[in-house]
Design goal:
The protein is built from 13 helices and 15 strands. It is an alpha/beta fold. The chain folds into two domains: about 250 residues, Rossmann fold (3-Layer(aba) Sandwich), CATH 3.40.50.880; about 80 residues, no CATH class.
Length: about 350
């Protein structure tokens, strides 16, 4: 989406994208605006929009600092993204988001969502991160830094597209000065394009406009108010509103190897609490992943809201093992995870007990 992700005109497009999913598991990634002071308000506005306009209950996956997160936080985040089938991210700062997402390794998670038949819906700042390279918009437009590129998530490589992504392409807020091309202006975008490796194109998308890149049909459709653009070597092709273009035509103009489809594990991850508890207690390479699964299950009660007793006991067993091994930070994280899930934990001389927190 070029912009306007919660505008009335975008509602029918969200609805079309959601309709094909069947059971919707929608999540919002708050990373793009995680540096702002109004994170809760930004999040609530988005959740209210999806609840009111689309009748969808969206969960926010909170991840605003890679350095401030633990290994367990990161494992839970990875699992929650992969469990979703509608992953949304929107306004904020592309450079800030990339500073958290790239060391995290978010791209394989998003690829898995797409390969499982889900949708990744990135708008505005988040859309900037999708290409092979990303422009640091604030640094160039607001700070005055000389134009340069950051390494992007390169999710577009999954479709064989070797490109950058520039939303807000037709922005005209500047009035008597050029704020098109996501506030960069044509002059600075041309300077940036001159720095790109040979064969890397620019995929532009106007405001209140959506480019739907479809893995199944291998096409790009243009929906919403205006147009999309494919720019390479000084030439620009307009992707007209309402059109559908085979992606092979864009690949031929800027060939790029298609990213390999992730290969599923021969053994599906287990959600059996006793097995997860054993893996967690082993302290082996799969321990953190097992603990993350236990935390997620304990928070929801597992599929179909089963009795959470065995799940909580599994987390507590992992906590006991962590304390016995001197991993006190991990033990504290596990306790905090249960507390956040509405489970009170009491340590006594006779052992640890727990109870579900009463609803207020």
């Amino acid at each position: 989406m070029g912009s306007g992700e919660t505008a009335p005109g975008m509602t029918k497009i969200h609805r079309e994208l959601l309709r094909r999913l069947g059971e919707v598991r929608a999540v919002n990634l708050d990373t793009t605006y995680g540096f702002q002071e109004n994170v809760p308000q930004m999040t609530q506005k988005l959740l209210d929009y999806f609840a009111t306009s689309l009748h969808v209950t969206m969960e926010t996956l909170h991840f605003t600092s890679y350095e401030g997160s633990s290994e367990l936080d990161r494992a839970v985040f990875h699992q929650n993204v992969r469990a979703a089938n509608y992953v949304f991210a929107g306004p904020g700062s592309p450079s800030y988001a990339l500073a958290q997402w790239r060391p995290l390794g978010l791209t394989p998670d998003l690829e898995q969502v797409l390969n499982d038949g889900g949708t990744v819906c990135f708008s505005s700042a988040a859309a900037v991160t999708l290409g092979a390279f990303s422009a640091p918009i604030y640094e160039i437009y607001k700070v005055g830094t000389a134009p340069y590129w950051l390494e992007g998530l390169n999710l577009t490589a999954l479709l064989g597209l070797n490109c950058t992504v520039v939303p807000h392409f037709d922005n005209a807020e500047g009035g008597n000065y050029d704020t098109s091309r996501c506030y960069l202006g044509e002059r600075r975008l041309a300077l940036l394009e001159g720095q790109l490796p040979e064969g890397v194109a620019t995929l532009g998308v106007d405001e209140h406009t959506v480019l739907v890149l479809d893995l199944e049909s291998d096409t790009v459709r243009v929906l919403g108010k205006s147009h999309g653009y494919w720019r390479l070597a000084g030439e620009q092709r307009v992707l007209d509103n309402g059109s559908s273009t085979p992606l092979r035509e864009l690949r031929q103009a800027a060939p790029a190897p298609t990213r390999a489809t992730p290969t599923p594990s021969d053994v599906a991850p287990t959600d059996e609490p006793s097995m997860l508890g054993a893996l967690a207690a082993s302290g082996g390479s799969d321990a953190i992943d097992a603990i993350a699964r236990l935390v997620r299950l304990a928070a929801s009660g597992g599929s179909r809201f089963i009795d959470p007793t065995s799940l909580v006991e599994g987390v507590l067993a992992a906590r006991v093992n962590a304390r016995a091994n001197g991993q006190y930070d991990l033990a504290d994280e596990l306790r905090d995870s249960l507390l956040k899930s509405g489970i009170d934990v009491q340590d006594t001389p006779d052992g640890t007990t727990w109870s579900l927190r009463a609803e207020k």
